[in-house]
Amino acid sequence: QVQLVESGGGSVQPGGSLSLSCEASGFTVSGYPMNWVRQTPGKGLEWVSYINSGGGDTSYADSVKGRFTIARDNAKNTLYLQMNSLKPEDTAVYYCVVGLLDYWGQGTQVTVSS
Predict the structure, then answer these.
(1) Residue 98 pairs with which residues in a beta bridge?
(2) Are 80 and 74 in contact (CB under 8 A)?
(3) pLDDT tens track for 9-58
(4) Is the sign of the CA dihedral 27, 28, 33, 39 positive or negative?
(5) Residues 6+ apart with CB under 8 A from 11
(6) What distance in Å separates the CA atoms of residue 113 and residue 87, rounded to the nearest whole number?
(7) How far apart are CA 10 and CA 22, in angstroms?
(8) Which residues contact 70 (CB under 8 A, 6 or more apart)?
């Protein structure tokens, strides 16, 4: 059974940090690019970051560039997102998405508020 389980979300004050993880099971992620996507009630779905299958190529939305870092550990079948200098506008449900297969996790809530 294919599963993607995100974790690491929570509530944090502006300027704080959170580290998200997305652990896959039921298939091997190593051959696929992966993304982080977030959703807010007002803005809908927003692509956040991309990493290629080997981890050597990454890209970011302008809104998070310089603050977020995507990484992966194929040996652990896991994707990561380090989020620093968080802003209230980063508040959203964050999903990991497997490219090409379009597998989605269940999402993890990130709330940035004072």
Answers:
(1) 34, 103
(2) no
(3) 999 999 999 999 999 999 999 999 999 999 997 889 999 999 999 999 99
(4) positive
(5) 111, 112, 113
(6) 8
(7) 15
(8) 36, 49, 50, 51, 58, 60, 79, 80, 81, 82
